[in-house]
Protein 1
Amino acid sequence: EVQLVESGGGLVKPGGSLRLSCAASGFIFKTYVMNWVRQAPGKGLEWVSCIGGSGTNTHYADSVKGRFTISRDNTKDSLYLQINSLRAEDTAVYYCARDLARTPLNWGQGTLVTVSS
Amino acid sequence: QTVVTQEPSFSVSPGGTVTLTCGLNSGSVSTDYYPSWYQQTPGQPPRTLIYSTSTRSSGVPDRFSGSILGNKAALTITGAQADDESDYYCILYMGGGIWVFGGGTKLTVL
């Protein structure tokens, strides 16, 4: 069974940084594209970033480009999202999702990031 | 800027059929966009219903179906049930490793 467990969220001040993690199990992690998707309180889903299986290819939404860095450690079956220069509008639940057929298919439960002074 | 459009809200009677759509502010949606559909209830992560236009995800009942209707992707729910009352999101693959979600449709069953 595919399992994705996010962690690392919390309360952080504007301008601060945070590193989110996603622990994967139940599948051969290194063979799948992985995504981060976020959802601000009461708002819709927003695709944030994806990374290829080897970790070489990464892509970002324009709204986070230059501040967010996606990475993975295939030896630990883990996905990461480094978030810098945090802004109030980055407040959201952050989900990791496994890609299949060009779709974020399997989802974790999410981790909440709150940016507030 | 690419905008993926969805109806903000829709209502359906129990047992009825409803079709939600997913379009583009410029251009037509085709299978090349790998349209997918998600269902989400408050406090829960999204649940994948349909991917690659019309493939049902594991465990999804066959009353949920996906297609291309005209210039949009479509999610049709036949025999709507009370627990279908949820938010529904579509996502389109824009190429170059970029995806864009629609704004979501709030479906009411009454």
Protein 2
Amino acid sequence: EAQVTQNPRYLITVTGKKLTVTCSQNMNHEYMSWYRQDPGLGLRQIYYSMNVEVTDKGDVPEGYKVSRKEKRNFPLILESPSPNQTSLYFCASSSWRVAFFGQGTRLTVV
Amino acid sequence: DQQVKQNSPSLSVQEGRISILNCDYTNSMFDYFLWYKKYPAEGPTFLISISSIKDKNEDGRFTVFLNKSAKHLSLHIVPSQPGDSAVYFCAASEGNNQGGKLIFGQGTELSVKP
């Protein structure tokens, strides 16, 4: 089954404690991205990757890092999480302008 | 500045009637538009799309209309069913971004009542 898998689904952490949200896709897509969803703002792109070792900032990259060492994986890293990063996060992989999303990670930073 | 706007946060319709969800955009460089459906605790799922060279695209009960001069698109669901109750996001992209980046509206929560 074609899918995008994120882990964990839910995470509560404390300010400043580094965390990683993993994302994996099995569709062999070159383009992958991370979005965050906040009330009244829809989904906003954080970072994207056009291929292995090629990453770039989206619209809201501050406080986040990504890496793309393998085509299927695109982890999101928060080096020092802050409460304003409390949000719902979605990983996506894209095929010709259509994005396919994972199930989401609800992150709470206290 | 919000380039894609869905001005109705919520919509309630009776089962069997038509649901019309609206979306406006400001960037004239957008040339591809999509609708996504999202259930609670799930990721958005792709529903239907339309290229700017068309003004209508139909898939079963779902039809998307594009009015480029008004920078407006709409999603029609006919007939509406209780299982259609979800949040609907419209999204847009430009042709020069190599196919990836989507700009989303705020979403409209549709409730279809039996």
Protein 3
Amino acid sequence: AQTVTQSQPEMSVQEAETVTLSCTYDTSESDYYLFWYKQPPSRQMILVIRQEAYKQQNATENRFSVNFQKAAKSFSLKISDSQLGDAAMYFCAYEGGSGYALNFGKGTSLLVTP
Amino acid sequence: GAGVSQSPSNKVTEKGKDVELRCDPISGHTALYWYRQRLGQGLEFLIYFQGNSAPDKSGLPSDRFSAERTGESVSTLTIQRTQQEDSAVYLCASSLSLSETQYFGPGTRLLVL
């Protein structure tokens, strides 16, 4: 079974600064997908970014980018120019290449201070 | 609306009662998923549907849990004889097809007293 580990239960960043959230995973598969989801207090899980394992290029979405290290099984999320609206729980998730279920980490609570 | 919707938003029930949770996926999405999120935890996969077929039910926590889907639309998650440990947020997601990006609904918060 694949496991996803987020070692930072809580992180804090000042507005306009950059923060990096860590995620590691364990798998024996070579083809898979990785995701970062954001969950604000409204409970809605919002997709932030998706990475295909076969792509070496790191995915980016505006202020959000990832550092995907396949050999190290590491998938960190960098948020640049942090905004108050970025405050939320962030979940890292894994989906196997032949699978369907997302395996989630326990999440990192991000606090953004003015 | 264009997104995944779930009802009710919140449900309070007494231990031993049955509850039904509903999910309306995004129109045209053939795959539908149910997850459970206990307080302070990540999401736990329960079951998925491809069309109205659920090939793998092994993620359901016990035989008190069941799910159905009508065609490629509405799905219902039923919990019979609820227990306090069933208290959680139940999230539904849908995707265009299996292995496509999953889009989530707002969830149903279930509290069993």
Protein 4
Amino acid sequence: AQRVTQPEKLLSVFKGAPVELKCNYSYSGSPELFWYVQYSRQRLQLLLRHISRESIKGFTADLNKGETSFHLKKPFAQEEDSAMYYCALHRTGANNLFFGTGTRLTVIP
Amino acid sequence: EAEVAQSPRYKITEKSQAVAFWCDPISGHATLYWYRQILGQGPELLVQFQDESVVDDSQLPKDRFSAERLKGVDSTLKIQPAELGDSAMYLCASSIGTPEQFFGPGTRLTVL
């Protein structure tokens, strides 16, 4: 069985402040984690994946297997970061995604 | 830029009626997914196709839901009969077989 937990349904930060969206997972296989984002009136889209270890729109996420976490971080939040963020676990055998419940980030001007 | 298309965007129906949703994936994407997203929750996989074959329908309520992808291109998801609890956003996504999935705009279903 697998589990993806995003403990915060809502998160508000001021513009310019650091932001961290939490994601914890439980999976018996080798985990591949992703962050998907949905901006207002737009489609759900991939933000970043842990294996690429890249920074997208200033966001980074590090897979911590010891803590089974994949938190999304950005040092200075921008208003355009306001969106719904979903952490997702790739089930390698089935080749599909298992999503968390999401966190709505609001960046206050 | 190629996108996943879905129709209709909105559907209102009465309980016990039949509804159908259509999805056209990005050309060349062999894998197609249908998700259900209830308000306040993340997308939940209903069915996954590889070409025309179902590879995962473990979460599909088969007594009332059916899905097909006859020619391995576009797909239809049907609910018959619809129940009040089926009110949700139904998302379609496609991929070339990698974990990155491309999502459509969704169909918002309201069952009265």
